[in-house]
Write a structure and sequence with these properties.
Blueprint (H helix, E strand, L loop, with lengths): L26 H11 L21 E4 L9 E4 L4 E5 L4 E6 L2 E2 L7 E10 L7 H6 L1 H4 L17 E7 L2 E10 L8 E3 L3 E4 H8 L7 E4 L8
Parallel strand pairs: 2-11, 5-9, 8-10
Antiparallel strand pairs: 1-4, 2-3, 3-4, 6-7, 6-11, 7-8
């Protein structure tokens, strides 16, 4: 975990991956999709059909003193997301982060949450990898194969949407790696559990990939 001295509540970030448009699915579809992506007899801390390393499974750990309950801290070195609890503990989840220098450390505010969001790659993503992303230039509808998965937390700097997200992924085997175009990925069944515990307005700290201060 990190100390408060490592946190600085300022950083201008570059526009990055995942421009998301309003969901095009009816809430009546959400329950069916949630059932589809949640393993039978699911236990948050032990169910592992994805073959993740055991350290990447959700675990309750002791948080460092002085951290604000409700806030999120992403350790980009160990590939962990910590959600700070009121009792001084934290829920720790394995994540994937941005590849090839696309990860953007910084201090963000979660200003929006969405279940089963739609998704459109940014223009920069389409220009960088047209063979991968141009097919979705008009947007990808929500569902279990959507790039944002089952839930998304939207990261802002002030009132500006950075287009960075903490979100579910249809590629759970990427957890623990540098795989995304900048966002923080989670197993869909894991972010479903986290999503209901996160309030809008809380702070998300994304730490550098080499450790140290923001």
């Amino acid at each position: 975990m990190f100390t408060r001295r490592q946190m600085i509540a300022s950083l201008a970030v570059l526009a990055a991956p995942a421009l998301v448009r309003p969901a095009m699915a009816a809430p009546s579809e959400w329950d069916a999709w949630d059932a589809q992506i949640t393993p039978a007899n699911f236990d948050l801390g032990s169910t592992n059909p994805w073959g993740l390393h055991p350290r990447l499974l959700p675990t309750r750990v002791q948080a460092n003193p002085g951290l604000t309950p409700g806030d999120i801290h992403v350790d980009a070195v160990a590939r962990y997301l910590y959600h700070i609890q009121a009792d001084g503990s934290a829920m720790r989840y394995g994540v994937a982060i941005g590849r090839d220098g696309l990860y953007e450390p910084g201090v963000y505010t979660i200003r929006r949450k969405a279940k089963w969001p739609a998704w459109r790659p940014t223009d920069a993503m389409i220009a960088r990898e047209p063979d991968v992303y141009s097919q979705w230039e008009d947007g990808m509808p929500p569902g279990p194969d959507n790039a944002l998965g089952s839930r998304a937390l939207y990261l802002y700097v002030g009132s500006r949407d950075t287009y960075l997200r903490i979100h579910g992924t249809p590629a759970p085997r990427s957890i623990g790696t540098r795989a995304s175009s900048g966002c923080v990925r989670m197993v869909m069944a894991h972010i479903n559990a986290l999503y209901d515990q996160v309030d809008t307005g809380v702070t998300a700290y994304l730490y550098p990939t080499k450790g140290g201060r923001l």
